[in-house]
Design a protein that fits this description.
Elements: H1 2-31, E1 33-37, E2 43-48, E3 53-58, H2 68-98
Antiparallel strand pairs: 1-2, 2-3
Helix pairs in contact: 1-2
């Protein structure tokens, strides 16, 4: 009976260590910056790993009051590009913790 309890304690310690490692990895990821861009880098958007926009840059020559839709499309393209990069890095960083765990 005691042998089973020792295994359970060992497993709980492993789970606690993995949880701390995950929290550390997530915190480090949140500090990183990801820059997305539209075609020809006319618009760039910078996000942190926790998906908060820090900056957006729009080149002057793309601003045309008669063609607002193009600027909107470029902003959307840059934002989506940055968020895709955040998502890929989050999966690469955090996905390793879910591998081999039931239900993930």
């Amino acid at each position: 009976m005691m042998r089973g309890m020792g295994n359970m304690q060992g497993m709980m310690k492993q789970v606690q260590k993995m949880q701390k490692d995950m929290e550390k990895a997530q915190a480090e990821l949140n500090l990183r910056e990801f820059v997305g861009s539209s075609s020809n880098d006319l618009v760039t958007a910078t996000f942190t790993g926790d998906r908060k926009m820090k900056d957006i840059s729009i080149k002057e020559d793309v601003v045309d009051p008669d063609d607002v839709e193009m600027l909107q499309d470029l902003v959307i393209m840059a934002v989506n590009d940055a968020l895709t990069k955040v998502e890929k890095e989050t999966e690469a960083t955090m996905g390793k913790y879910a591998k081999g765990m039931p239900g993930f």
